[in-house]
Amino acid sequence: MAPDGRLAVKFWGTRGSIPVAMTSTEVRRKLIASLVRASGRTLDTPEKATVFLERELDFAVSHTFGGDSSCVEIVTGGKDYVLCDLGTGARVFGNDVLATRGASGHTFHVFMSHLHWDHIMGFPFFMPVYAPGNHIRIYGCHAGLETAFRGQHAAPFFPVDFARLSATIEFVRLEPGRDYEIAGLRVRPKLQRHGGDSYGYRFHMRDRVVVYSTDAEHKQDDLTEIQGFVEFFRDADLVIFDSQYSLAEATSVKEDWGHSSNVVGLELCQMARARRLCLYHHEPVSNDERIAALLAETQRLEEITRGDRRVEILAAYDGMELTL
Ligand SMILES: [Zn+2]
Ligand SMILES: [Zn+2]
Questions:
Q1: What is the pTM of this model?
Q2: For position 254, what pLDDT does the model report?
Q3: Model pLDDT for residues 285-298, shown as the tens digit of each residue
Q4: What whole-number distance in Å separates Cα of residue 163 and Cα of residue 174?
């Protein structure tokens, strides 16, 4: 949490459907672009090179959005940790906790959007599960919540059986549409349109609201459903939104594949008077330039369609931190 006690969010995995790694070809392309931009400059110290990199190169050249699958931390400032989903980003998060806060004595509250593989596959590599003295509470609305986690943590998928995990692990079923008080947050799950269903979460702490809404398709002709999401996003400080597809894809070839677009995300946020829209669950085929272009297109669309209130548009990347 920020020093002044505000709610914060940290993104540990932002890729949709399957984790991806940057290829040698992409690394080479970034290096060539950087070297060409740096020609004629004297960048003979790490400090000068860092300043050049931060100030003069585009994000897609100097950085990467990253390739770990869904995992977002809601930083409340309390003793317990709060996460959304356990994609491969959870592996990086778990290692960070171990390195900075020690191996044991932690409590984690995890809110699961759904049980598709890309959202649970980080759990066997989430090191806190192997340390006694850790407490992990996994919340979700699916009847098969516990079965899915036990199933992936067993032969033939994984060598260590769930029963041998040292941490105390609990599964807690939630009902959509109800408010819960958990880890200092007021939390409300909402049913979303996705294969096998998914659930979004609206988190409220003091006067700040974060909505985590991934793996959700929105039918623009279903006005009742749209209105339900406008209420769910209402006045949010941040909406983390599945924008895996372009609007053209989401309404043609990839219709009914269970994901949404940047355009629908912007419309919902404008109707809900949300303050920030964060594009999330990036398409695995998209490279950094493509995601940066999607962000720029969305920002332009927001400028053109802006009413009396601006929606700030961001694209999530692995490691991004936002204070609300
Ligand atoms: Zn997914
Ligand atoms: Zn899914």
A1: 0.96
A2: 80
A3: 999 999 999 999 99
A4: 24
Closest ligand by atom to 71 CA: 1
CA angle at 204 for the pair 74 and 317, rounded to the nearest 5°: 35
The CA 310 to ligand 2 mean position distance, Å, reads 30
In 193-228, where do the E strands start and end?
Answer: 198-205, 208-213
Q: 250 pLDDT exceeds 90?
A: no
| In the chain, % of residues over pLDDT 90 | 91
Angle between helices 262-272 and 223-233 (to 10 degrees): 70
Ligand 1 centroid to 116 CA: how many Å? 6
Residues 6 or more apart from 121 whose CB is under 8 A from it? 19, 69, 86, 87, 88, 152
pLDDT above 90 for 253: no
From the CA of 115, the nearest ligand is: 2
pLDDT tens digits along 85-109: 999 999 999 999 999 999 999 999 9
**Which CATH number is 8-20+66-323 given?**
3.60.15.10
Q: Is residue 81 left, alpha or beta, with left meaning phi > 0 and alpha meaning psi from -120 to 50?
A: beta
C-alpha distances in angstroms, 14 versus 118, 295, 297?
11, 14, 19
Helix extents (H) in the chain? 24-37, 46-56, 59-62, 89-101, 117-120, 145-152, 223-233, 247-250, 262-272, 288-305
Q: How far is the CA of 54 from the centre of ligand 1 (A)?
A: 31
Q: Which three-class secondary structure state does DSSP give residue 165?
A: coil
Amino acid (1-letter code) at residue 188: R
Residue 95 token pair = 């290692």
So what's the pLDDT on residue 56? 95
- Under a CB-based contact definition with an 8 Å cutoff, are residues 296 and 257 in contact? no
Question: Strand order of the sheet with strand 71-75?
Answer: 168-173, 135-140, 107-111, 81-84, 71-75, 8-13, 321-323
Q: How many CB atoms lie within 10 A of CB 145?
A: 20
What is the chain's mean pLDDT, rounded? 95
Give distance in angstroms: CA of 36 to centre of ligand 1.
Answer: 37
Q: Which ligand is nearest to the CA of 119?
A: 1
